[in-house]
Design brief:
Shape: globular
Number of helices: 11
Mean pLDDT: 89
Oligomer: single chain
Bound molecules: adenosine-5'-triphosphate
Radius of gyration: 18 Å
Helix content: 25-40%
Order of helices and strands: HHEEEEHEEHEHHHEHEHEEHH
Distance between the termini: 45 Å
Structural class: alpha/beta
Strand content: 15-25%
Number of strands: 11
Length: 257
């Protein structure tokens, strides 16, 4: 989505940071969140390029989920700005951010267990003029649940519920999908299925930010990695650079440098 035709938005700095003249899709600037005396996210400048797959890692309590909640608007920032696709999202609510092209899947499944797989997928399509049947069929194919389309969501395995929720988060083809620990508690087979799904979404051009603890999974899916520690960006680089960095091993893996 682009607002290049809107002169009021063109005159804002957001367009310089994430607009049509740059390949940066999301940029946070000085993003900060205080909880009382604790600074959970501390002056974070995070950039995500169009079509990029970036993993966000870091020790427990590093601020990963808080950063994701600030980007989606679930939490209000204490300081700083969030730019996305030429717009300043900082003061927009979550629904407006979704309309702008952001989507999120939180850690635990939020599917409607009493509804069928297809009925769950219809929920995000209520406000769209898309061809619902075509969109649902394409999504079912993408998440590998075509054969289970009429099954109640309560009957699905944990891994299938997670894939259904990724399907719900992607029916509207967001430009950026944020995933919080998408393979937590999954078997190896379920983890591999989600890895394939994430890669196919990325192959289709979707940018993703994935919070993850499982380094094997990060190694499998990731192009770029950001390490958060004590609310700050500690390192950024490729998975190889991050894995070989002795300071990252010390803070993240608990090893001595
Ligand atoms: N609503 C809240 N009120 C007060 N403190 C909070 C709140 N949410 C998070 N925190 C604190 O902010 C810090 C960052 O938490 P956050 O959950 O973002 O870390 P995380 O990197 O996602 O950790 P984990 O990997 O364990 O999920 C922690 O010290 C946490 O206790």
């Amino acid at each position: 989505m682009s607002n290049a035709s809107d002169p009021t938005i063109m005159s804002t700095p957001a367009v310089d940071r994430t607009g049509p003249d740059t390949d940066i899709l999301l940029a946070t600037e000085g993003l900060t969140k205080h909880f009382g005396g604790l600074t959970a996210v501390d002056s974070v400048d995070l950039s995500v390029k169009e079509g990029e797959l970036r993993c966000l890692i870091g020790p427990n309590g590093a601020g990963k989920s808080t950063l994701l909640d600030l980007i989606t608007g679930q939490l209000e920032s204490s300081e700083g700005s969030i730019y996305f696709d030429g717009m300043d999202l900082t003061d927009l609510d979550t629904h407006e951010r979704i309309d702008a092209g952001l989507s999120v899947k939180f850690q635990s499944p939020h599917v409607y267990e009493d509804l069928s797989v297809t009925e769950n997928l219809q929920i995000p399509l209520q406000r769209t003029d898309r061809d619902v049947n075509e969109t649902i069929n394409r999504t079912l194919d993408r998440i590998g649940l075509s054969a289970r389309r009429d099954v109640q969501a309560a009957e699905l395995s944990h891994g299938q519920q997670q894939r259904l929720e990724i399907g719900m988060a992607t029916t509207l083809d967001p430009e950026l999908l944020l995933l919080d620990e998408p393979v937590a508690g999954m078997s190896v087979e379920e983890t591999n299925e989600v890895a394939e799904l994430i890669q196919s979404l990325n192959d289709d051009g979707m940018a993703l930010v994935v919070i993850e603890h499982d380094m094997e999974f990060v190694d499998e899916i990731s192009q770029q990695v950001t390490v958060l520690n004590q609310g700050e960006i500690f390192r950024q680089g490729t998975i190889e650079e991050i894995q070989d960095d002795p300071d990252v091993r010390r803070i993240y893996l608990g090893e001595e440098a």
